[in-house]
Protein backbone atom coordinates (compact mmCIF):
# COMPACT_ATOMS: atom_id res chain seq x y z
CA UNK A 1 0.00 0.00 0.00
CA UNK A 2 1.53 3.39 -0.98
CA UNK A 3 2.17 5.85 1.83
CA UNK A 4 2.97 9.54 1.72
CA UNK A 5 4.47 11.82 4.36
CA UNK A 6 2.65 15.14 4.29
CA UNK A 7 3.70 18.45 5.88
CA UNK A 8 0.80 20.61 7.14
CA UNK A 9 1.48 23.74 9.21
CA UNK A 10 4.68 22.49 10.78
CA UNK A 11 3.39 18.97 11.47
CA UNK A 12 4.17 15.76 9.59
CA UNK A 13 1.44 13.22 8.92
CA UNK A 14 1.81 9.70 7.50
CA UNK A 15 -1.07 9.21 5.05
CA UNK A 16 -1.62 5.68 3.66
CA UNK A 17 -3.39 5.34 0.32
CA UNK A 18 -5.28 2.16 -0.57
CA UNK A 19 -6.01 3.25 -4.13
CA UNK A 20 -3.29 4.78 -6.33
CA UNK A 21 -6.05 5.99 -8.66
CA UNK A 22 -6.91 8.65 -6.08
CA UNK A 23 -5.79 12.20 -6.84
CA UNK A 24 -3.36 14.72 -5.40
CA UNK A 25 -6.38 16.73 -4.26
CA UNK A 26 -7.60 13.72 -2.24
CA UNK A 27 -4.20 13.45 -0.55
CA UNK A 28 -4.27 17.13 0.39
CA UNK A 29 -7.80 16.91 1.79
CA UNK A 30 -7.02 13.72 3.72
CA UNK A 31 -3.90 15.29 5.23
CA UNK A 32 -5.86 18.39 6.24
CA UNK A 33 -8.62 16.19 7.69
CA UNK A 34 -6.09 14.34 9.84
CA UNK A 35 -4.50 17.64 10.87
CA UNK A 36 -7.89 19.09 11.92
CA UNK A 37 -8.78 15.89 13.77
CA UNK A 38 -5.67 16.21 15.97
CA UNK A 39 -6.37 19.84 16.92
CA UNK A 40 -8.61 20.78 19.89
CA UNK A 41 -9.97 23.76 17.95
CA UNK A 42 -10.00 21.95 14.59
CA UNK A 43 -7.08 24.10 13.54
CA UNK A 44 -9.40 27.08 13.24
CA UNK A 45 -11.51 25.45 10.49
CA UNK A 46 -15.16 24.41 10.58
CA UNK A 47 -14.51 21.54 8.16
CA UNK A 48 -12.13 20.29 5.48
CA UNK A 49 -14.39 21.87 2.85
CA UNK A 50 -13.49 25.34 4.19
CA UNK A 51 -9.79 24.83 3.49
CA UNK A 52 -8.22 26.00 0.23
CA UNK A 53 -4.73 24.68 -0.38
CA UNK A 54 -1.93 23.91 -2.81
CA UNK A 55 0.12 20.71 -2.82
CA UNK A 56 3.80 20.65 -3.75
CA UNK A 57 6.72 18.27 -3.61
CA UNK A 58 9.17 18.86 -0.78
CA UNK A 59 12.01 18.08 -3.18
CA UNK A 60 12.34 21.13 -5.39
CA UNK A 61 8.99 22.61 -4.23
CA UNK A 62 7.32 21.80 -7.55
CA UNK A 63 3.56 22.48 -7.51
CA UNK A 64 1.26 19.51 -8.20
CA UNK A 65 -2.07 19.53 -10.02
CA UNK A 66 -4.86 18.48 -7.66
CA UNK A 67 -6.52 16.49 -10.46
CA UNK A 68 -3.45 14.32 -11.21
CA UNK A 69 -3.57 10.70 -10.04
CA UNK A 70 -1.15 9.83 -7.25
CA UNK A 71 0.36 6.90 -9.17
CA UNK A 72 1.40 9.32 -11.92
CA UNK A 73 2.38 12.38 -9.88
CA UNK A 74 4.22 10.85 -6.90
CA UNK A 75 6.48 8.00 -5.92
CA UNK A 76 5.69 5.73 -3.00
CA UNK A 77 6.75 7.22 0.35
CA UNK A 78 7.38 10.64 -1.20
CA UNK A 79 7.33 13.78 0.94
CA UNK A 80 4.84 16.48 0.02
CA UNK A 81 3.70 19.75 1.54
CA UNK A 82 0.19 21.17 1.82
CA UNK A 83 0.28 24.98 1.82
CA UNK A 84 -3.00 26.37 3.13
CA UNK A 85 -4.16 29.59 1.48
CA UNK A 86 -2.94 32.59 3.48
CA UNK A 87 -0.38 30.64 5.52
CA UNK A 88 2.65 31.63 3.45
CA UNK A 89 2.26 35.23 4.68
CA UNK A 90 1.83 34.17 8.30
CA UNK A 91 4.76 34.62 10.71
CA UNK A 92 4.01 31.10 11.98
CA UNK A 93 4.49 29.47 8.57
CA UNK A 94 7.28 26.87 8.63
CA UNK A 95 8.49 25.89 5.15
CA UNK A 96 9.72 22.34 4.63
CA UNK A 97 12.87 23.50 2.84
CA UNK A 98 15.81 25.67 3.91
CA UNK A 99 16.62 28.96 2.22
CA UNK A 100 18.09 28.58 -1.24
CA UNK A 101 16.17 25.41 -2.06
CA UNK A 102 17.09 25.81 -5.72
CA UNK A 103 20.62 24.82 -4.76
CA UNK A 104 19.46 21.42 -3.53
CA UNK A 105 16.73 20.48 -5.98
CA UNK A 106 19.37 19.27 -8.44
CA UNK A 107 21.28 17.23 -5.85
CA UNK A 108 22.84 14.08 -7.25
CA UNK A 109 24.10 11.31 -5.00
CA UNK A 110 27.89 11.18 -5.31
CA UNK A 111 29.67 8.07 -6.59
CA UNK A 112 33.16 8.79 -5.25
CA UNK A 113 34.32 8.19 -1.68
CA UNK A 114 36.77 9.82 0.70
CA UNK A 115 38.52 7.47 3.12
CA UNK A 116 38.55 8.89 6.64
CA UNK A 117 41.16 7.82 9.19
CA UNK A 118 41.01 10.74 11.64
CA UNK A 119 44.48 11.93 10.70
CA UNK A 120 44.59 13.27 7.14
CA UNK A 121 41.45 15.33 6.41
CA UNK A 122 42.15 18.66 4.70
CA UNK A 123 40.12 21.86 4.62
CA UNK A 124 39.53 21.30 0.89
CA UNK A 125 38.28 17.75 1.59
CA UNK A 126 35.79 18.94 4.20
CA UNK A 127 34.39 21.69 1.96
CA UNK A 128 33.93 19.14 -0.85
CA UNK A 129 32.19 16.77 1.56
CA UNK A 130 29.92 19.66 2.52
CA UNK A 131 29.05 20.28 -1.11
CA UNK A 132 28.02 16.64 -1.46
CA UNK A 133 30.81 15.68 -3.87
CA UNK A 134 31.82 12.57 -1.92
CA UNK A 135 30.53 9.82 0.32
CA UNK A 136 32.52 8.56 3.31
CA UNK A 137 34.06 5.25 4.27
CA UNK A 138 36.49 4.33 7.02
CA UNK A 139 39.97 2.97 6.42
CA UNK A 140 40.62 -0.55 7.80
CA UNK A 141 43.10 0.92 10.29
CA UNK A 142 40.48 3.34 11.59
CA UNK A 143 37.96 0.53 12.03
CA UNK A 144 40.41 -1.44 14.16
CA UNK A 145 41.20 1.59 16.33
CA UNK A 146 37.49 2.25 16.89
CA UNK A 147 36.92 -1.39 17.91
CA UNK A 148 39.87 -1.36 20.34
CA UNK A 149 38.60 1.85 21.91
CA UNK A 150 35.12 0.38 22.39
CA UNK A 151 36.56 -2.68 24.12
CA UNK A 152 37.87 -0.39 26.86
CA UNK A 153 34.38 1.04 27.43
CA UNK A 154 32.80 -2.41 27.51
CA UNK A 155 35.38 -3.46 30.09
CA UNK A 156 34.60 -0.44 32.28
CA UNK A 157 30.92 -1.30 32.25
CA UNK A 158 31.52 -4.98 32.93
CA UNK A 159 33.76 -4.16 35.89
CA UNK A 160 31.38 -1.43 37.13
CA UNK A 161 34.21 1.09 37.29
CA UNK A 162 33.23 4.69 38.08
CA UNK A 163 34.26 6.81 35.06
CA UNK A 164 33.04 10.31 34.15
CA UNK A 165 30.33 10.36 31.48
CA UNK A 166 30.15 6.58 31.27
CA UNK A 167 28.89 5.57 34.69
CA UNK A 168 28.38 9.08 36.14
CA UNK A 169 26.36 12.18 35.38
CA UNK A 170 27.80 15.20 33.54
CA UNK A 171 29.22 18.58 34.50
CA UNK A 172 28.13 19.44 38.04
CA UNK A 173 26.66 15.92 38.32
CA UNK A 174 30.01 14.23 37.70
CA UNK A 175 29.98 12.72 41.19
CA UNK A 176 26.56 11.14 40.73
CA UNK A 177 27.00 7.43 39.96
CA UNK A 178 24.41 5.99 37.57
CA UNK A 179 23.06 2.42 37.95
CA UNK A 180 24.11 -0.02 35.23
CA UNK A 181 20.53 -0.50 34.02
CA UNK A 182 20.22 3.27 33.43
CA UNK A 183 23.39 3.80 31.37
CA UNK A 184 21.68 3.79 27.97
CA UNK A 185 18.94 6.09 29.26
CA UNK A 186 21.69 8.38 30.57
CA UNK A 187 23.07 8.87 27.05
CA UNK A 188 19.66 9.57 25.49
CA UNK A 189 18.81 12.02 28.27
CA UNK A 190 22.14 13.76 27.70
CA UNK A 191 21.42 14.31 24.01
CA UNK A 192 17.85 15.48 24.64
CA UNK A 193 18.69 17.89 27.46
CA UNK A 194 21.66 19.40 25.64
CA UNK A 195 19.66 19.98 22.44
CA UNK A 196 18.83 23.53 23.46
CA UNK A 197 20.24 25.71 20.70
CA UNK A 198 18.32 28.49 18.96
CA UNK A 199 18.35 30.32 15.65
CA UNK A 200 18.18 29.26 12.04
CA UNK A 201 19.30 25.71 11.22
CA UNK A 202 22.61 25.20 9.49
CA UNK A 203 22.18 25.02 5.73
CA UNK A 204 22.69 21.50 4.31
CA UNK A 205 26.30 22.14 3.21
CA UNK A 206 27.31 23.26 6.70
CA UNK A 207 25.45 20.47 8.45
CA UNK A 208 27.08 17.97 6.09
CA UNK A 209 30.50 19.41 6.97
CA UNK A 210 29.70 19.24 10.68
CA UNK A 211 28.61 15.60 10.44
CA UNK A 212 31.59 14.62 8.29
CA UNK A 213 34.02 16.24 10.70
CA UNK A 214 32.47 14.50 13.70
CA UNK A 215 32.82 11.18 11.85
CA UNK A 216 36.50 11.97 11.19
CA UNK A 217 37.14 12.68 14.88
CA UNK A 218 35.36 9.47 15.93
CA UNK A 219 37.47 7.57 13.38
CA UNK A 220 40.61 8.44 15.37
CA UNK A 221 39.61 5.80 17.91
CA UNK A 222 39.75 7.80 21.14
CA UNK A 223 36.01 8.35 21.69
CA UNK A 224 34.77 4.90 22.67
CA UNK A 225 31.98 4.77 20.10
CA UNK A 226 31.15 1.31 18.72
CA UNK A 227 31.97 0.52 15.11
CA UNK A 228 28.34 -0.46 14.56
CA UNK A 229 27.08 2.96 15.63
CA UNK A 230 29.75 4.82 13.67
CA UNK A 231 28.84 2.93 10.51
CA UNK A 232 25.19 3.84 11.05
CA UNK A 233 26.18 7.50 11.26
CA UNK A 234 28.20 7.16 8.05
CA UNK A 235 25.19 5.60 6.30
CA UNK A 236 23.12 8.62 7.27
CA UNK A 237 25.80 10.97 5.95
CA UNK A 238 26.02 9.06 2.68
CA UNK A 239 22.22 9.28 2.29
CA UNK A 240 22.44 13.03 3.02
CA UNK A 241 20.12 12.70 6.02
CA UNK A 242 21.04 15.84 7.95
CA UNK A 243 19.72 16.75 11.41
CA UNK A 244 18.27 20.14 12.33
CA UNK A 245 21.16 22.01 13.98
CA UNK A 246 20.43 25.58 15.21
CA UNK A 247 23.37 27.88 14.60
CA UNK A 248 23.38 29.52 18.06
CA UNK A 249 23.95 28.08 21.52
CA UNK A 250 27.59 27.04 21.82
CA UNK A 251 30.06 28.80 24.13
CA UNK A 252 32.90 26.71 22.72
CA UNK A 253 33.73 24.73 25.89
CA UNK A 254 32.96 21.98 26.83
CA UNK A 255 33.10 21.77 23.09
CA UNK A 256 30.11 22.68 20.92
CA UNK A 257 27.63 20.84 23.14
CA UNK A 258 24.32 22.34 21.95
CA UNK A 259 24.84 22.06 18.16
CA UNK A 260 26.43 18.62 18.38
CA UNK A 261 23.56 17.46 20.60
CA UNK A 262 21.07 18.56 17.93
CA UNK A 263 23.18 16.63 15.43
CA UNK A 264 23.00 13.52 17.64
CA UNK A 265 19.27 14.05 18.26
CA UNK A 266 18.52 13.54 14.57
CA UNK A 267 20.75 10.48 14.44
CA UNK A 268 18.67 8.80 17.17
CA UNK A 269 15.51 9.54 15.19
CA UNK A 270 14.25 12.52 17.17
CA UNK A 271 13.76 16.15 16.22
CA UNK A 272 13.84 17.32 12.62
CA UNK A 273 16.01 16.12 9.77
CA UNK A 274 16.55 17.21 6.17
CA UNK A 275 17.32 15.26 3.01
CA UNK A 276 17.07 16.20 -0.66
CA UNK A 277 14.19 13.77 -0.93
CA UNK A 278 12.13 15.00 2.02
CA UNK A 279 13.01 18.55 2.91
CA UNK A 280 12.56 19.17 6.65
CA UNK A 281 10.58 16.38 8.29
CA UNK A 282 10.52 14.38 11.50
CA UNK A 283 13.81 12.51 11.69
CA UNK A 284 12.13 9.11 12.09
CA UNK A 285 10.24 9.59 8.79
CA UNK A 286 13.32 10.76 6.90
CA UNK A 287 15.39 7.82 8.08
CA UNK A 288 12.59 5.38 7.29
CA UNK A 289 12.23 6.83 3.78
CA UNK A 290 15.92 6.08 3.17
CA UNK A 291 15.76 2.56 4.62
CA UNK A 292 17.76 3.54 7.71
CA UNK A 293 17.19 2.88 11.41
CA UNK A 294 17.81 5.38 14.23
CA UNK A 295 20.94 4.89 16.31
CA UNK A 296 20.34 3.15 19.66
CA UNK A 297 22.94 4.69 21.94
CA UNK A 298 25.17 2.43 23.99
CA UNK A 299 26.94 3.64 27.15
CA UNK A 300 29.29 6.60 26.45
CA UNK A 301 28.07 7.00 22.85
CA UNK A 302 25.92 10.07 23.45
CA UNK A 303 28.91 11.81 25.00
CA UNK A 304 31.12 10.60 22.14
CA UNK A 305 28.80 12.26 19.63
CA UNK A 306 28.46 15.67 21.30
CA UNK A 307 31.81 16.52 22.90
CA UNK A 308 34.20 18.46 20.67
CA UNK A 309 34.93 21.62 18.68
CA UNK A 310 33.47 20.48 15.37
CA UNK A 311 30.93 23.31 14.97
CA UNK A 312 33.62 25.98 15.35
CA UNK A 313 36.06 24.04 13.21
CA UNK A 314 33.73 23.11 10.36
CA UNK A 315 32.51 26.70 9.99
CA UNK A 316 36.12 27.83 10.34
CA UNK A 317 37.09 25.46 7.55
CA UNK A 318 34.59 27.10 5.21
CA UNK A 319 35.84 30.52 6.34
CA UNK A 320 39.46 29.64 5.56
CA UNK A 321 38.66 28.28 2.09
CA UNK A 322 36.49 31.27 1.17
CA UNK A 323 39.11 33.66 2.57
CA UNK A 324 41.81 31.99 0.46
CA UNK A 325 39.69 32.37 -2.67
CA UNK A 326 38.77 36.03 -2.12
CA UNK A 327 42.37 36.93 -1.22
CA UNK A 328 43.53 35.69 -4.63
CA UNK A 329 40.65 37.48 -6.33
CA UNK A 330 41.47 40.70 -4.46
CA UNK A 331 44.88 40.85 -6.16
CA UNK A 332 43.26 40.51 -9.60
CA UNK A 333 40.61 43.15 -8.86
CA UNK A 334 43.16 45.59 -7.42
CA UNK A 335 45.43 45.09 -10.45
CA UNK A 336 42.54 45.93 -12.78
CA UNK A 337 41.77 49.07 -10.75
CA UNK A 338 45.41 50.11 -10.91
CA UNK A 339 45.29 49.84 -14.71
CA UNK A 340 42.09 51.94 -14.90
CA UNK A 341 43.63 54.60 -12.62
CA UNK A 342 46.81 54.57 -14.73
CA UNK A 343 49.06 53.46 -11.89
CA UNK A 344 52.68 52.38 -12.14
CA UNK A 345 54.11 48.88 -11.82
CA UNK A 346 57.38 50.07 -10.27
CA UNK A 347 56.16 49.51 -6.71
CA UNK A 348 56.03 45.77 -7.39
CA UNK A 349 59.71 45.44 -8.32
CA UNK A 350 61.30 42.20 -7.09
CA UNK A 351 64.21 43.96 -5.36
CA UNK A 352 61.92 46.12 -3.24
CA UNK A 353 60.14 43.13 -1.76
CA UNK A 354 63.33 41.12 -1.29
CA UNK A 355 64.30 43.75 1.29
CA UNK A 356 61.21 42.94 3.37
CA UNK A 357 60.77 39.25 2.64
CA UNK A 358 57.41 38.42 4.17
CA UNK A 359 56.07 35.46 2.27
CA UNK A 360 52.62 36.93 1.63
CA UNK A 361 54.04 40.25 0.47
CA UNK A 362 56.36 38.54 -2.02
CA UNK A 363 53.50 36.38 -3.36
CA UNK A 364 51.17 39.36 -3.90
CA UNK A 365 53.87 41.40 -5.62
CA UNK A 366 54.53 38.42 -7.92
CA UNK A 367 50.83 38.19 -8.80
CA UNK A 368 50.71 41.89 -9.65
CA UNK A 369 53.76 41.57 -11.90
CA UNK A 370 52.11 38.56 -13.58
CA UNK A 371 48.93 40.53 -14.30
CA UNK A 372 50.24 43.99 -15.17
CA UNK A 373 52.25 45.46 -18.04
CA UNK A 374 55.36 43.44 -18.96
CA UNK A 375 57.26 42.21 -22.00
CA UNK A 376 55.16 39.05 -21.86
CA UNK A 377 51.80 40.83 -21.41
CA UNK A 378 52.06 44.41 -22.79
CA UNK A 379 49.33 46.90 -21.93
CA UNK A 380 48.23 49.69 -24.26
CA UNK A 381 46.80 51.57 -21.26
CA UNK A 382 50.15 51.46 -19.46
CA UNK A 383 51.96 52.56 -22.60
CA UNK A 384 49.62 55.56 -22.94
CA UNK A 385 50.91 57.16 -19.71
CA UNK A 386 54.46 55.81 -19.62
CA UNK A 387 56.01 59.29 -19.74
CA UNK A 388 53.57 61.08 -17.43
CA UNK A 389 54.91 63.22 -14.56
CA UNK A 390 53.37 61.12 -11.78
CA UNK A 391 56.08 59.79 -9.46
CA UNK A 392 54.14 57.40 -7.23
CA UNK A 393 50.62 56.16 -6.56
CA UNK A 394 48.32 56.37 -3.55
CA UNK A 395 48.83 53.79 -0.81
CA UNK A 396 45.70 51.87 -1.82
CA UNK A 397 47.49 50.98 -5.06
CA UNK A 398 51.16 51.13 -4.18
CA UNK A 399 50.93 49.22 -0.90
CA UNK A 400 48.81 46.29 -2.07
CA UNK A 401 51.64 43.75 -1.56
CA UNK A 402 52.12 44.92 2.02
CA UNK A 403 48.41 45.08 2.90
CA UNK A 404 47.16 42.10 0.88
CA UNK A 405 50.31 40.21 1.82
CA UNK A 406 49.69 40.12 5.56
CA UNK A 407 46.15 38.91 4.82
CA UNK A 408 47.62 35.97 2.92
CA UNK A 409 49.98 35.22 5.81
CA UNK A 410 47.05 35.44 8.26
CA UNK A 411 45.06 32.94 6.21
CA UNK A 412 48.03 30.55 6.10
CA UNK A 413 48.44 30.80 9.88
CA UNK A 414 44.75 30.16 10.53
CA UNK A 415 44.60 27.34 7.98
CA UNK A 416 47.38 25.53 9.84
CA UNK A 417 45.47 25.73 13.14
CA UNK A 418 42.18 24.63 11.54
CA UNK A 419 43.89 21.71 9.76
CA UNK A 420 45.36 20.48 13.05
CA UNK A 421 41.94 20.86 14.67
CA UNK A 422 40.27 18.87 11.86
CA UNK A 423 42.36 15.84 12.79
CA UNK A 424 42.39 16.20 16.57
CA UNK A 425 40.61 14.15 19.22
CA UNK A 426 38.56 16.63 21.26
CA UNK A 427 36.47 14.36 23.51
CA UNK A 428 36.34 14.05 27.26
CA UNK A 429 37.18 11.62 28.65
CA UNK A 430 39.68 10.30 26.11
CA UNK A 431 39.85 6.54 25.65
CA UNK A 432 43.37 5.15 25.34
CA UNK A 433 43.09 1.58 24.08
CA UNK A 434 46.84 0.96 24.27
CA UNK A 435 46.75 1.81 28.00
CA UNK A 436 43.34 0.30 28.67
CA UNK A 437 42.10 3.40 30.45
CA UNK A 438 40.21 6.68 30.09
CA UNK A 439 41.67 10.06 31.05
CA UNK A 440 39.78 13.31 31.56
CA UNK A 441 41.33 16.36 29.95
CA UNK A 442 40.46 19.60 28.21
CA UNK A 443 40.90 19.02 24.47
CA UNK A 444 37.28 20.10 24.00
CA UNK A 445 38.18 23.73 24.76
CA UNK A 446 37.74 25.81 21.61
CA UNK A 447 40.28 28.54 22.33
CA UNK A 448 42.60 27.58 19.47
CA UNK A 449 40.06 27.84 16.63
CA UNK A 450 38.26 30.73 18.37
CA UNK A 451 41.38 32.91 18.58
CA UNK A 452 42.43 31.92 15.06
CA UNK A 453 39.05 32.82 13.55
CA UNK A 454 38.94 36.15 15.34
CA UNK A 455 42.35 36.83 13.82
CA UNK A 456 41.08 35.73 10.41
CA UNK A 457 38.16 38.19 10.58
CA UNK A 458 40.50 41.06 11.46
CA UNK A 459 42.93 40.10 8.71
CA UNK A 460 40.47 39.48 5.86
CA UNK A 461 38.51 42.66 6.66
CA UNK A 462 41.45 44.73 5.46
CA UNK A 463 40.81 43.57 1.90
CA UNK A 464 37.40 45.26 2.06
CA UNK A 465 38.75 48.35 3.82
CA UNK A 466 41.38 49.03 1.14
CA UNK A 467 39.00 48.01 -1.67
CA UNK A 468 36.40 50.58 -0.55
CA UNK A 469 39.08 53.30 -0.78
CA UNK A 470 39.94 52.21 -4.31
CA UNK A 471 36.23 52.36 -5.23
CA UNK A 472 36.24 55.95 -3.94
CA UNK A 473 39.20 56.75 -6.22
CA UNK A 474 37.42 55.20 -9.20
CA UNK A 475 34.23 57.20 -8.56
CA UNK A 476 35.86 60.54 -7.66
CA UNK A 477 36.74 62.50 -10.85
CA UNK A 478 39.35 64.59 -9.03
CA UNK A 479 41.30 61.41 -8.30
CA UNK A 480 40.56 59.23 -11.33
CA UNK A 481 40.42 61.48 -14.41
CA UNK A 482 37.26 59.52 -15.23
CA UNK A 483 33.64 60.74 -15.35
CA UNK A 484 32.05 61.25 -11.92
CA UNK A 485 30.69 57.98 -10.54
CA UNK A 486 31.75 56.26 -13.75
CA UNK A 487 28.78 57.34 -15.84
CA UNK A 488 28.76 59.37 -19.07
CA UNK A 489 25.50 61.21 -18.45
CA UNK A 490 26.01 62.32 -14.86
CA UNK A 491 22.89 63.80 -13.30
CA UNK A 492 20.58 61.89 -15.57
CA UNK A 493 22.23 58.74 -14.21
CA UNK A 494 23.88 58.36 -10.79
CA UNK A 495 26.27 55.61 -11.82
CA UNK A 496 28.20 53.98 -8.98
CA UNK A 497 27.28 56.63 -6.40
CA UNK A 498 25.23 54.34 -4.15
CA UNK A 499 27.20 51.21 -5.00
CA UNK A 500 30.09 52.97 -3.26
CA UNK A 501 27.78 53.77 -0.32
CA UNK A 502 26.96 50.06 -0.06
CA UNK A 503 30.66 49.23 0.07
CA UNK A 504 31.19 51.84 2.80
CA UNK A 505 28.25 50.41 4.81
CA UNK A 506 29.65 46.88 4.61
CA UNK A 507 33.11 48.02 5.70
CA UNK A 508 31.58 49.85 8.65
CA UNK A 509 29.64 46.71 9.69
CA UNK A 510 32.84 44.73 9.52
CA UNK A 511 34.54 47.06 11.97
CA UNK A 512 32.03 45.98 14.63
CA UNK A 513 32.13 42.31 13.59
CA UNK A 514 35.93 42.27 13.90
CA UNK A 515 35.74 42.79 17.66
CA UNK A 516 37.13 39.48 18.97
CA UNK A 517 34.55 37.21 20.58
CA UNK A 518 37.26 35.10 22.21
CA UNK A 519 38.25 37.91 24.58
CA UNK A 520 34.98 37.18 26.39
CA UNK A 521 34.23 34.32 28.77
CA UNK A 522 31.18 33.58 30.91
CA UNK A 523 31.25 30.84 33.52
CA UNK A 524 28.68 28.09 32.85
CA UNK A 525 27.49 24.78 34.32
CA UNK A 526 27.54 26.02 37.94
CA UNK A 527 31.19 27.15 37.57
CA UNK A 528 32.31 23.69 36.42
CA UNK A 529 33.00 25.17 33.00
CA UNK A 530 34.42 28.42 34.36
CA UNK A 531 36.28 29.56 31.24
CA UNK A 532 34.91 29.25 27.71
CA UNK A 533 36.09 30.30 24.24
CA UNK A 534 32.97 31.79 22.59
CA UNK A 535 34.33 30.19 19.43
CA UNK A 536 30.92 29.59 17.84
CA UNK A 537 30.34 33.32 17.44
CA UNK A 538 33.96 33.78 16.30
CA UNK A 539 33.30 31.32 13.46
CA UNK A 540 29.90 32.70 12.47
CA UNK A 541 31.00 36.31 12.41
CA UNK A 542 34.18 35.44 10.51
CA UNK A 543 31.92 34.06 7.78
CA UNK A 544 29.85 37.27 7.82
CA UNK A 545 32.98 39.39 7.52
CA UNK A 546 34.16 37.26 4.59
CA UNK A 547 30.77 37.59 2.90
CA UNK A 548 31.03 41.38 3.18
CA UNK A 549 34.58 41.31 1.79
CA UNK A 550 33.32 39.28 -1.19
CA UNK A 551 30.57 41.82 -1.80
CA UNK A 552 32.84 44.88 -1.55
CA UNK A 553 35.37 43.39 -3.95
CA UNK A 554 32.54 42.50 -6.35
CA UNK A 555 31.54 46.19 -6.35
CA UNK A 556 35.14 47.19 -7.05
CA UNK A 557 35.36 44.69 -9.89
CA UNK A 558 32.21 46.08 -11.50
CA UNK A 559 33.48 49.63 -11.03
CA UNK A 560 36.88 48.83 -12.56
CA UNK A 561 35.23 47.19 -15.59
CA UNK A 562 32.98 50.24 -15.93
CA UNK A 563 35.99 52.54 -15.71
CA UNK A 564 37.94 50.72 -18.38
CA UNK A 565 35.16 51.49 -20.89
CA UNK A 566 36.18 55.17 -20.76
CA UNK A 567 39.75 54.24 -21.77
CA UNK A 568 38.72 52.36 -24.91
CA UNK A 569 39.87 51.61 -27.55
CA UNK A 570 43.03 51.05 -25.46
CA UNK A 571 43.40 47.56 -24.06
CA UNK A 572 44.96 46.29 -20.86
CA UNK A 573 47.03 43.10 -20.51
CA UNK A 574 45.77 39.77 -21.83
CA UNK A 575 45.03 38.31 -18.34
CA UNK A 576 43.07 41.40 -17.28
CA UNK A 577 41.19 41.53 -20.58
CA UNK A 578 40.05 37.97 -19.87
CA UNK A 579 38.78 39.10 -16.47
CA UNK A 580 36.92 41.95 -18.18
CA UNK A 581 35.40 39.53 -20.71
CA UNK A 582 34.24 37.23 -17.91
CA UNK A 583 32.46 40.10 -16.15
CA UNK A 584 30.88 41.31 -19.39
CA UNK A 585 29.53 37.81 -20.04
CA UNK A 586 27.08 38.41 -17.17
CA UNK A 587 27.00 42.22 -16.63
CA UNK A 588 26.72 44.69 -19.50
CA UNK A 589 28.27 48.16 -19.64
CA UNK A 590 26.07 50.70 -17.82
CA UNK A 591 25.70 53.88 -19.87
UniProtKB/TrEMBL annotation:
<dbReference type="GO" id="GO:0019556">
    <property type="term" value="P:L-histidine catabolic process to glutamate and formamide"/>
</dbReference>
<feature type="domain" description="Par3/HAL N-terminal">
    <location>
        <begin position="13"/>
        <end position="80"/>
    </location>
</feature>
<dbReference type="InterPro" id="IPR008948">
    <property type="entry name" value="L-Aspartase-like"/>
</dbReference>
<comment type="similarity">
    <text>Belongs to the PAL/histidase family.</text>
</comment>
<protein>
    <recommendedName>
        <fullName>Histidine ammonia-lyase</fullName>
        <ecNumber>4.3.1.3</ecNumber>
    </recommendedName>
</protein>
<keyword id="KW-0456">Lyase</keyword>
<keyword id="KW-0369">Histidine metabolism</keyword>
<keyword id="KW-0597">Phosphoprotein</keyword>
<dbReference type="Pfam" id="PF12053">
    <property type="entry name" value="Par3_HAL_N_term"/>
</dbReference>
<dbReference type="GO" id="GO:0005737">
    <property type="term" value="C:cytoplasm"/>
</dbReference>
<comment type="pathway">
    <text>Amino-acid degradation; L-histidine degradation into L-glutamate; N-formimidoyl-L-glutamate from L-histidine: step 1/3.</text>
</comment>
<dbReference type="GO" id="GO:0004397">
    <property type="term" value="F:histidine ammonia-lyase activity"/>
</dbReference>
<dbReference type="InterPro" id="IPR001106">
    <property type="entry name" value="Aromatic_Lyase"/>
</dbReference>
<dbReference type="InterPro" id="IPR005921">
    <property type="entry name" value="HutH"/>
</dbReference>
<dbReference type="InterPro" id="IPR021922">
    <property type="entry name" value="Par3/HAL_N"/>
</dbReference>
<dbReference type="InterPro" id="IPR024083">
    <property type="entry name" value="Fumarase/histidase_N"/>
</dbReference>
<dbReference type="GO" id="GO:0019557">
    <property type="term" value="P:L-histidine catabolic process to glutamate and formate"/>
</dbReference>
<dbReference type="Pfam" id="PF00221">
    <property type="entry name" value="Lyase_aromatic"/>
</dbReference>
<dbReference type="InterPro" id="IPR022313">
    <property type="entry name" value="Phe/His_NH3-lyase_AS"/>
</dbReference>
